[in-house]
Amino acid sequence: MPALDIAQEEVGYLTPEAMTEVAHALNLDPGYVEGVATFYSLFHLEPVGKHRLYMCTNLACMLRGAYDMLAHANQAIGVSESGEVSADGLFSTEEVECLGACEYAPMMRLDHAFHYDLTAEKIDALIGERRG
Amino acid sequence: MPDEKQPTPPSNDITLTIDGRSVTVPRGTLVVEAAKRLSLEIPVFCYHHKLNPVGACRLCLVDISPGPPKPQTACTTPVAEGMVVRTNTASAVAARADILEYELVNHPLDCPVCDKGGECPLQDYTFRHGYPTSRIDAPRLHFEKPIRLSDKIALDRERCVLCYRCTRYYDEIAWEQELTTDQRGVHSYITSQFDQPLQSIFSGNIIDLCPVGALTSRVWRFESRPWDMDHTASVCSKCAVGCNVTMWQRRNQLVRITSHENDAIDDGWICDRGRFDYTEVNSGERVRAPRVGGQHATWTDALQALLDGVRGKELGISIPQDVTNEEAFLLKRLVDGPWKGARVVMQRRTRIPAIERDTLPIRDLEQAKCIVIIASNTADEVPVVNLRIKKAVSRHGARLVLVHPDDLDLDRWPHGVHHVRPAAGGYAEAVRELRGHEYLQNGPVAVLYGDARGAEDGAAIAAAAAELAEAVGGNLMPLYRATNERGALALGLLSDATDLEGCDAVLIWGPGRPPASARFTAVWDFLVRPEHGDPDVVLPGTSFAEAQGSYTNLEGRVQFVRPPLHAGPPLRASWEVLVDIGQQLNGSLDFIGIVGVQKAASAASPALAALADPPAPMLAPTPVLYGPARP
Amino acid sequence: MGKHKAQPPAGPLRGSHGKARHHLLTEHFGTRDLATLKGYQRFGGYETLEKALGMEPKALVDEVKSSGLRGRGGAGFATGVKWGFMPPPDGGPRYVVVNADESEPGTSKDRYIIENSPHMVLEGILIAAFAVQSHQAWIYIRGEYDRPYQMLSDAIAELRDAKILGPRPFGEDYALDIQMYRGHGAYICGEETALLESLEGKRAQPRSRPPYPAVKGAWARPTLLNNIETLATVPWIIRHGAAEYVKFGTEKNRGTRLLSVSGHIRTPGVYEIEIGVPFTHVIMELAGGPFEGRQIKAFWPGGSSAKVLPASRMDVTTDAEALAAADSMAGSGGCMVADDTTCMVETTYRLLKFYAYESCGKCTPCRVGGNWAVRTVAKILAGEGSRMDLQMLDRIQAGLQDGRCLCGLGDSAGWVVQSAMNHFPEEFEEHAVRHTCSVKRVRAAASA
Which of C138, C336, C103 lies closest to C231, judged by CA? Predict the structure, then answer.
């Protein structure tokens, strides 16, 4: 799994070529690596945005308006539903499960950092910073 | 010192009660197996007696006391003394029905078009253990189907119950992972890696393993229903391992081949050659009548033409790898007698010489602490023995020593394989150096040897192997390639020659290319193949599916075949044709019935002693209808 | 290795230090450099480890047994007893594997602990390792916890520099090492044997038990698995003694624990409570109670896997026994609170989606039943349901429990449905049969 992580960081997502390379490096069958990669939510087998907004919509966040935040984020990056990549390839959203920061709901993970107490303005600002 | 009371060692036999009935089984037996002894069916999907139990499908839930209040899976629970198992409590009965219902929630209503119908555990269990009516009105989950896993195997993901037998088999038994599970939860599905076709020679076994119609044979697709077919238990004719198979026929066509489990040899597996390479038996192009000079002829005329054509010439005979012991015996009488001096070569044989002594039975590989494999890529040459080697290594901790220049699939074993790569001609030396290796010092050693596909001096390798076995107290297993190579060698039938170059008259029995030197060629086969060229005489042969007699496998074990197909005139049994030839040449072969041949053969060679008491020849049932299985 | 900068937690410190009465674990949380080795040592950090290394391992196990400490991950198994399950050393490797996969909805206390005092966690791990005669610990941390991973890695680096990790910690001839391993997004990895499968680099599907990890765990070797908070409590117990620890909590559920409180309350946060205080204290006092003009309707006491309780049961105490008697459970300590603007059918739907999504797919009932339940509730929410669907839901939830499934995930999915339908039957009734939602109507009226 750490090897797949490195591959994903480098390529952006896990292509069959990337997985095959990992398999050969570790002396494993590519089929085995494929099975492992497809099991875990953080491994992307389809292209994702350069910046990924993982937005928690599980219960605690849902109670504090997470779905509204998700809708706003989708609108802000210009996609019709979560899971899609923006036209310029810069952003994608994903509805995810509990991220373990419930006291700061609603919240999200943007790339490798948590962002708490989301508001529409905060989301706009975070997106804006990365658009420039 | 006062006498200390020795603790009684735990008995190996455990007595438990299942549904009020008592049964005694060896320690370590699983509850589901103990139930079988009482003819009690505990339904299972994920459990298979050759695979490690996982308790995944939850179908075998039973109530066990003493134990937790919740039901336990019978397939993962070993028996304990005094255990009380109940399969018929309300909770166990409800659990089974519920699990079956869950399996059916997304299962498509494919029975009428599904090849598994009629031999389908899901059907049978639902009938016997499931709810009588369906309460499912939700739309089912859909997958694209069928998926072409290879040109032999089709996958239907909607039928799949995710018992994981197929992926576990691939992983535990074949040591490959080209079949894998993707995704998670209800969206999990079985797939070949990156949707590429399956390559493994062991892939076909997943068809037999699959408890539903998810994995089916494309070769047998939509051919027939199980109750439509007759079957015989026979022996595979594709290599020297001699796996036991069941051959199924319908309308005198060979429609499929499955494993007939024999723990002594194949452990329940067959390879894809044995499983799928049978369709030419049903070919419409089969030779149905003798031919002389391209024209149809009678047997009398054709045999006459054959005998005339070879008289006085340098005769070479190429025999098929699946020549039976009986046929080989008769041919030997001919080449010792009226055809003295004829050269006899066998298709696909190795350069390993005959071996007189007792050799290692395949099953005993599991007892070995070290397995040495010399000059053979077992996955390719003796595939099912390769699986037994893998079992010995992964289940019984045997160490592996490989003597081969290439990377082999056995190198995958992550816990240490000693792999020596000799240069050409360097085998004997390499083998000698193994004597002191640590892997060979800890218990029984199995020494398996091939001939590097004919590239090396087989006799030298055999000698080196024998020396090694002697030195470390090991047992030998010669890895012959041709089906009945050991039998033919035991009869002294095979010449040292590797081909028929120089012979001016040749009889090509089975597949084989006549040499350029041949001025007269007779072909005796069930198909005229391109390599046969333009023969002067063609005799219609029988295929392995019509042959009667026996093969001797690489262990030296004589096994009797049972033909599923009926060879009516103008086909003649090969042994009969040989007797006919012998009669015509000098009246030397005077046998009535194959049993007579077998008894004579048993006297000819100690290796064929089993032929002294052959089973009654079971001929294939005369079919009611002839013609293609699928009209 | 670089500088080891003290990193403050990413968000404002919400929780214990403000209002909670007890600070066994959280005593120094909020101190600027508590996350560094020096900062931790200022409060006596690693003195307990040094002391432990000079004790008999069995004495450590006994002390933890006497303390009554129970696992804080969710199962609540007696920790000392679990330590005692480890077989005697046989010369081969043995492992301590730390479950930092915290993914139970509503639970953030492990993250909170790691971000505030990673060294407290590490000290607990090392004491445990010595107690069960292991030399190698693995921390399995969920992949989404980037900061906590970084903080623990930095802390481990500090320990290596200080030779507290290495062949001779504090001069004792007992090698100790800790490695980190990141998960990649699977709730099921919180289940012990699934975690081990993931650690071994496979698809994370739970194993059949027995054998239990103590006998055959990571790479088939004896393994002790404990939750972050459980291990973080160990230094306190060894330092102050079991006799002090049992002064807190109830007879069967000793000590304090951290509760993450979230949802429709004014001051969400992670609060250290004495086990046994009632939830009214937690929800109404520590967490500030409901918003203006709203009333608490329901709460999940210990993560979404704990059966939901109606507000009328808020007087139930926080100990495992009381919660079990109330037909719920203490679970992971992730308390989520919903007020009267919440439609319980919607919450059931969302939680079921979670369980179905996270189901590993190994066993039939959870794989099929979870998804079937989701589709049935979706149908009801879409206004296309009927009484039949309610009966179906009841059937499905029964089929998920009572040992039918290979692990607890399936049971939890069943409990979600069972408890919601049990306590709020009129909401399910009106959705399924009359195709209305009175909560939505109230919400719409309120915002009109």
Answer: C138
C-beta separation of C337 from C285 below 8 A: no
> Helix (H, G, I), strand (E, B), or coil: what is residue B601?
helix
Q: What topology is assigned to A51-131 in CATH?
A: Glutaredoxin (3.40.30)
DSSP assignment of B188-255 equals -EEEEGGGPPP--TTTTHHHHH-SSTTEEESTTTTS--GGG-EEEEEE--SSTT--EEEEEEETTEEE
CB-based contact (8 Å) between C266 and chain A?
Answer: no
- One-letter amino acid at A36 equals V
pLDDT tens digit at each of 132 positions of chain A: 999 999 999 999 999 999 999 999 998 999 999 999 999 999 999 999 999 999 999 999 999 999 999 999 999 999 999 999 999 999 999 999 999 999 999 999 999 999 999 999 999 999 999 987
Shortest Cα–Cα distance, C424 to chain A (Å): 17
Cβ B564 vs Cβ B232: under 8 Å: yes
Q: Chains near B, with 3+ CB pairs < 8 A?
A: A, C
- Tell whether C78 and C172 lie within a shared domain: yes
Q: Which CATH number do you get for residue C274?
A: 3.10.20.600
- Whether C147 is in a domain gets the answer yes
Among B167, B179, B182, the strongest candidate for a mutation testing the A interface, having the largest count of A CBs within 10 A, is B182
Interface of C with B in 347-386 (CB under 8 A): 356-365, 367-372, 375-376, 379
What letter would DSSP give residue B5?
P
pLDDT at C80 over 50: yes
Number of domains in chain C: 3
Query: How close B417 gets to chain A, by Cα (Å)?
Result: 14
B394 touches chain C (CB under 8 A): no
Residue B623 is classified by DSSP as P
Q: What is the mean pLDDT of residues B9-24?
A: 89
pLDDT digits (tens, 9 = 90+) for B533-591: 999 999 999 999 999 999 999 999 999 999 999 888 889 999 999 999 999 998 878 89
Q: Are residues C300 and C168 in the same domain?
A: no
**Contact C198/C204 with Cβ under 8 angstroms?**
yes
Q: Provide the 3-class DSSP secondary structure of residue C415.
A: helix
Residue C251 within any structural domain of the chain: no
Which residues constitute the domain of residue C159? 37-245
Q: How many Å lie between the alpha carbon of A79 and the closest alpha carbon of chain C? A: 23
Q: Which of B403, B435, B428 is nearest to B418 (CA)?
A: B403
Task: List, as one string, the DSSP characters of A35-78.
Answer: HHHHHSTTS-SS---SEEEEEE-SHHHHHTTHHHHHHHHHHHHT
